[in-house]
Amino acid sequence: MTTYRISQLAERSATPASTLRFYETAGLLPAGRTASGYRVYGEDAVERLAFISSAKLLGLALEEIRELLDVREEGVCASVRARLLPLVAARIAETDGRIAELRAFSAHLAGVHAGLAGPAPAGACGPACGCTSTGAPAAGPVPITLSPTRLARSREPWRDVPVACTLDGADVAERTGQWQRLAGRAERREEIPDGLRLSFPAGAEIAGEVAALAAAEQGCCAFLDFTLHLTPTALQLEVRAPQAAAGMLADLFGATR
What we know:
A hairpin with a 5-residue loop joins β2 and β3 (about 40). The chain is built from eight helices and eight strands. It has about 260 residues and is of the alpha+beta class. The protein starts with a strand and ends with a helix.
């Protein structure tokens, strides 16, 4: 039977060794130990990693991937497809909902923009000058939650996810720079329990940037919990993490805990 040391599996699967260790801790990739204590993986590890990568590209949470792997272990493809089908349908519905919310907010912004582009009244601002938006978007305030714990938010299982990033060194530096540049555009920074809140000017463009970056971050750091709030006047991003990840929050956002 073919077995792999961690370095061999990392090379064969093009997956960083740090990611393999994270998957083991998260219960996604079982590993044995040699008499000397080295990790050793079975011959199905490469296919298992390919399945995990495919599931992550679908936006599935760690607990969903773990459940799918358990079904896959039974060796019946039909069972895997039957479990995977509703998960993909749920991601479609979730994505369509986000698109609808952002479109509603964009339409509201377009109305405000059109009003501001008209002639300004003489004198100081007043209730009808257009500088103060009193109408809510068609869909009202738009809360968008990006979280690996969609199916059980009340338990907040993100607190129990191992604090480990699956990116390699170069990608970590690039991602850190992206967050730091985005955080530099925030108008306000507040400490909240387990994390921080960043406030940005309202706008569909920056909302898309924040949402895309938060979604990408959860693909490698499932222990981070993101909530994005869109209102007629502001965009707020809340980031929470376990205490063990306080240093990472500081690196990404300049937060102090």
